[in-house]
Design goal:
The chain has three helices and nine strands, in the order H-H-H-E-E-E-E-E-E-E-E-E. By secondary structure, the protein is α+β, with helices and mostly antiparallel strands. The chain has one domain: Peptide methionine sulfoxide reductase (Metal Binding Protein, Guanine Nucleotide Exchange Factor, Chain A, Beta Complex). The strands form two sheets. Strands 3-4-8-7-6-5 form a six-stranded antiparallel beta sheet.
Amino acid sequence: MNRRQFWTFGALAGVSALAMTRGALATGGEFEIERTPEEWRAMLTDLQYNVMREEGTERAGSSPLDRNYADGTYHCRGCDLALYASDAKFDSGTGWPSFYQSLPRAIGTHTDTRFFMTRTEAHCRRCGSHLGHIFDDGPAPTGKRHCLNGVSLVFRAA
């Protein structure tokens, strides 16, 4: 390997590592409910922790909530805040629970630029738990698709 190849490989590896890094969500007065990483780990499974605290994702088609169309409300697993009403749920065909809108003042968003693309990340506004992403290819009336990880949610029947 010559010097040019070494530096090129090193730069590509560094950029790839930064793009794929999933840092734990910030805590420091940002959210109404805050817990230490140890407290989160004690209350969540490894998969739930990875998704909710490290902005990971569950495997498509793995959540039973994707196929749930009962009347009720979807709550944050981290703090039990009501996030989405069942009447806003639709079958997006993606393998993840999808909604065209959240309940008022339920979620927060920020721009996610990982993986060389720009997306809108959705999180619980009260505890900061990662929920998924919002895309502009949903149905009327909003045209939005809130593509969520089922492990971040708890369904409460009406």
